[in-house]
Fold:
Amino acid sequence: MLKKTFFTATNLHFLIKESSLPAMNKTTPLFLGLLLAQAVTLQAQSLPWTGTWGVTPQSGGNTFNNQTIRQIVYTSAGGSAARIRLSNLFGSQSVLISDVHIALAGTGSSIQPGTDHVVTFGGTGSVTVAAGADVNSDSIPMTIPSLSEVAISFYLPNSTSVRTYHQFSFQTVYVANGDVSGSTNLSVASTQSSYFFLTNLDVQSPALTGAVVTFGASITDGFGSTQNANHRWPNFLAQRLSAAGINVGVINQGVSGNQLLNNNNTLSALNRFQHDVVGQPNVRWVIFSDDPINDVGNNHSITGAQLIAGVKQLISQAHSNGLKFLGSTLTPFKGAGYWSSAGETAREQYNAFVLSPSSGCDGVIDQDTATHDPNNPTQFLPAFDSGDHLHPNDAGYQAIANAVNLSFFGTPQTQTEAPFGGTPAAIPGTIQNENYDTGGEGLAYHVTSINGTANSYRSDGVDLETTADTGGGIDLGWTGSGQWFKYTVNVTTAGTYTVSFRVASITAVGASAGSFHLQTPSGTNLSGPINVPGTGGWQTWTTITATVTLPAGQQIIELFEDAGGYNFNFMTFASAGSQMAIAPVFSPGSGTYTSAQNVSITSATSVASIRYTTDGKTTPTETVGTLYSGPVSISSTTTLEAIAYETGFTDSPVTSGTYTIATTTGKITLQASSLSPSGSGQAISTTADAAAPGGTWVKITSTAVGQWIQFTTPSIPAGTYNLSLIYRSNNTRAQHNVAIDGAQVGTTIVDQYAVTATYPPAVAIGSVNFGTAGTHVIRLTATGKNAASTSFQISAVQFIFQ
Structure:
């Protein structure tokens, strides 16, 4: 009989069969670690899938042949795993969909490098979706941020007459020729304004309590909202829920032209409720919205009583499936082409029923009151009218979302603004722009979209990315008109301060109105307009200045963006009359060299002194490090850091650079971390480890055969070399080959698997001949994995040519 052990993890109890684990001492850390890993896996498997995005499938579409489609969707809730649903619900024949990928969206048709994941179905990279069927993908081990844009790409190899699509995406869909699903950037052949085959994105997260389906017609669909802005009212509702700390997914099942009673443009609400509402993952609530407007607009003989009878059937269906039904009053539409007095009467009768205590609704969203003109209640408030008198504009959609009582979905968390890290930033001093106050959207900051990629730094994931500026770190990007960020500061002495802003922009931004300004939370302008110059690139940085007058003591300063199109790194406050010393510059710059280098260190602040360190651990200051008096000789791999300082100046930022010296005395050793690693699939990371040869190692967390990591060498002299590789082994590693400039070197397949992490001796790869001196690309591609390995990760420490 099997002995079973109860194991507790995060308040869940799991039965784990010990006979399924390797034989070992049951008290060893490895055994306990395996127990924990199995428990965590079981916990993940026990989490329900919850919808974070969705559209209703409709009959219709385009024809594609040998083309890739990239579709951008906007999430409502985040999770640590994802899956997609493809639909051929209205197809008359099966359809083959291949090479499916998912990634965080970049700008336009691009994806964010390092975020691409291959999507499988039953373990394979393609799926044949039968006519009339939906299919879910396998689980994708990918972090999906809330309120973010995700790109889903797939290849249609055969001539495909699409019969299942969603007519209006209000988001640009990109089409490219050939199979390029995994490409970071597409060569776009055409764009579309519909979603094709793709109907759902789901996530798993222990924080999620369920999903709400917004069920309606064109107003729910977002008709007339700004293209690519995610300004549908369900998007605004998702943002409100997130800001309130309520972890609920929002699944939009609005269909333009849909009716409650009659099939038109797709199945009626009555006929599609089971598939489009009850069939959604982890649904707990449904908000029924604007369908009846189309009923009375298209058929003036339909009465309020018929509408009421229809919605009662929906309420009954919801309750019989354990769902809460949230009814909505109908928005005004006088002035629209199909308005009639009979339709208006029916609308008012329907609204009275929804608002009545006996309606059977579990809650009500009064969209009518939220959007009508108080002086002309049968019409939209002009500020909310898109112009067709039937659909709201963006402000009207926001008003509808604001009318939703969030307590329907849980208790909103009380947000309190506080300084980042708990301590106000000191003035004079430097404030990193990514360290805006905590407290959430609308309290500590306001953004119009969430596009950030440095989501591990701030849990909100807002507008942050890794910077290439001197000193590294994080910058604040994706600026936009009307966005703002608050910073709690403590001013030592009242007075006038010079503020130096570190900024980057491809082109100049702002004119007389300025690009941004500093103000108090009440709106008092402190700095006047500040214009950002063009620097030539998003990561090409310069410093601009302004002056502010501040009282002493703790206070809040607000950075207000008057226009968008630039990045912030930090802002330094110095007493007026003083200025910051300019950061040192290294010559030659950091990189990999084949001989020892004498590095000069200079600062544009000519009177400044410079101190430097070379141990890669100690940060130089005015009193720490070696006082620079001449070129620094570097003959081995060294991290050089320097600072400029002078009385009357604020200390400069630290300049840092790593020099790798690969000598050519019969042997060239290249540190992988200094070779600009890039790759496909998962993110690439560099880890410092004193035990590693050269002090660092690089890893790509690949998840499938065919994924790769590559490195670009410095110029290597012509000649014939034997190539060896040093890597870091552990139990997650893959088997891989090695290629240079596209040609495999030798026949060796390197197996990086080992039970215990270590640095094995260099493994011989094969001989390579370079006819001329020059740079080369080394690529390691996953070909398989040891049966005991848990993943397809690939690592590299050093490449040795001798």
